[in-house]
Amino acid sequence: MSAEIVKGAIVRDVQPLQTPPLADSPIKTDTTIPDLLIKGTMMTKVSEKGKKRVTFRIDPDEGQILYKSSKAGLVPIEAIKELRTGSNTRYYRQQFKYPEEYEERWITVIYILDGTYKTLHIVADTRDIFHLWDTALHKLYAVRQGLKTGLGNVELRQNVFERQYWKGADKTGDQVLDYGDIERLCMRLNVNLTPAELQRQFKEADTTNKGHLDYTQFQTFVRVLKRRSDLEEIYAKLATENGGQLDLAGFTGFMKGTQKSKLSDDQMKEVFAKYTKAQSESPNDPVGVMSVEGFTSFLFSPENSAFSEQDKPVWQDMTAPISDYYISSSHNTYLVGHQLVGVSTIEGYIRALLHSCRSVELDIYDGDEEPTIYHGKTLTSKVSLRDVCQAISKYAFVTSPYPLLISAEVHCGIAQQDKIVDIMAEVFGDALVQAPVEGRPKIEQLPSPEHLKGKFLLKAKNLYVVEQLAAVQAARLADKAATQRAVEIEADTPSSESSDNEAEALLKEGLSDLKNKWKRIRGKSGDASKDPAKHKTKMSFRLASLLVYTVGVKCHGLDAEVEYAPEHIFSLSENTANRLLKASMTDLVKHNHTHLVRVYPKGTRVNSTNFEPHRYWAAGCQVVAINWQTFDLGYTINQAMFQRNGRAGFVLKPDALRHPEKDLLSKRTQHFLDITIISAQQLPRLRDSKGQEIIEKSIVDPFVEVSLHIPDWTHSPFLPDSATAAGAKYSPSTNATTTSVSSARTVSLRTSVIKDNGFNPVWQQELCIPFDCVGDMMDVIFVEFAVRQNGKDDDDDEPIGAYCIPLGCLEQGYRHLPLHDAQLSQHLFSTLFVRVSIRNIS
Fold first, then answer.
1. Which residue range or ranges hold the C2 domain (predicted)?
2. Which residue segment(s) compose the domain that 182 sits in?
């Protein structure tokens, strides 16, 4: 499938309804679905329980795969995360022990329902049937995915909306909707209309007075229903300010003044022309004047995206040392569930890599014949290292071409350590970075992502280097302790030549005692002589040759007396990192100028919850590892960060963390984020575990909560009395406990509640949220918008829809925010309309 189609595919014809091509569509794609697939075909459904003959069919209008099942029997197309066919299904075909001949007719659908990844395996009876299904699913998937990558393609989105809800309302299939059908549709859409208002609008749409609406009349009814008075008011105000019409001068003034646009005058003209010509409805329309329709299309367009870097290609400088970048990282990548009893599989790697993750984790143990991967000392299942490496090799550079860091904990003996090298060398080939242990040139500076493009870097502890550093550290501490002891002796001893000699002897004795003690601990004397192998370093020299730019070592502190080579990287547990932030954040920032540091969630997170990564990004830590199997705030913030820079998985750290000579970290400022929550559009219904919308008698009562998640860079946050009086809620940063995760500071405010309206609620309410910033690092402050249902427990219930973005990427002015579900899948039709500005206090 071409990237062009995935980005914004366009529907021409979707059976059973026929419509002409869309005039303003950037791409014309025929997605006619064969009647055979709409009626249904018998195929084989494969699962762990065996195989079963099932009739599968496609509903292209509602966007669903349907089949008979005791559990679900429904897969929403928009819930699909990946479609695999042919050789891409080999892993599952082999896992279920089916012959190779099945592969050419095998389809695997990976999707999310009720917050859980699920798989559907289908084998067609013939190659012809397989091709029909393969083509149809990829067409529908491309359209839905294209609509889930922003808010462009307004006409296409409207077209898909109308078809989906027409089909859902026309239960009898008679191609007309009576008043009862429309009434039920409005309930499904969360529409807040009195019976009299609904009757009036129905009669206005029923132009033939037949008591029902055909498809064209239904389209008219829906477009009246979706009319945006809030946008019309903004347009009218702009037109009034510009002599009654919105011409280029008025549009330019709006863009520069309200939208804070950085476009050049020529670029401004191009945008104006695009949304003036495209929306011209008749030859009589005035030339050079933007209509309300054109203005509306512009406000929904990619040119007016709230995310300043949305859909941009890689644009940052990729030639700096890799220590200058944040690196999208995963923890326990092999797990897709609970850390104690979860499933180890290649799926975790595929999901992470397809979302531009650039650091994956392997926990490698001795297997029967070859090394295996699982969570040690738990009941998690196992997956072979070879299967994982093959999956990594296949998907590593699909989304991003930049280097992939493989962080490994190696628990194997020497023999299988050599097999690790054999497998990686065989699977990764020349893309695997390696160098002989002996005779390596000294590394003065880490290479850049550009230099390492397409390369695999193994990161693991080099036990020889670990031992050397430990010995140096022990000797340093021994010298320090002995010197201190000598000073104490000298202070208590009369000054004479004999006493000086005595002090020197005592100093040597103290140093010798401490060094002998260290040797006993390291197994180099004493009891170790009885068992020479007991403390002997057990590491394959071949494995050590794979550790080049990412040599794992233990952290022996961050003071100036401890020297680490540029390639030395240590891993900090969440609790250790928190202690360093509190005790010596400045030292950590300094270390991270030239070295990589990995931070990972504490081991007691058995349910795989996440910390908030921006706490550690603010100190310059690059490899902040997240449990990608858990959709929580930490995961959301991580995904928001790495939407940037073309989803390369590498994002340049702020200048304050890369240029110590500028002393930007001494700059502390105070601000207000002024957000006017204007309205929301087509808020979604929650779905049950089977993927069906939950349609209750009552319509939702929504409110919006806006939260700023701020790193721990001051002990006294900016929280003026005016904000507290307005209802601002402040939550200080916390460290992790056995029952809770660590968190950064949060300041939040919420709107009032709109009763009985989830279709087009209007708030027009300003929220002024105070925050402080260090070194202009707004890229590590995150804004979270959450639309919630009144009466629900905010801490336990997921929002109706949410959106998270780095504050530094949030564009000012009038913006539509796409809303996502708890798994970060974008709702096709749901948006939040806001006005954004940042007010500087100091």
1. 653-821
2. 155-225
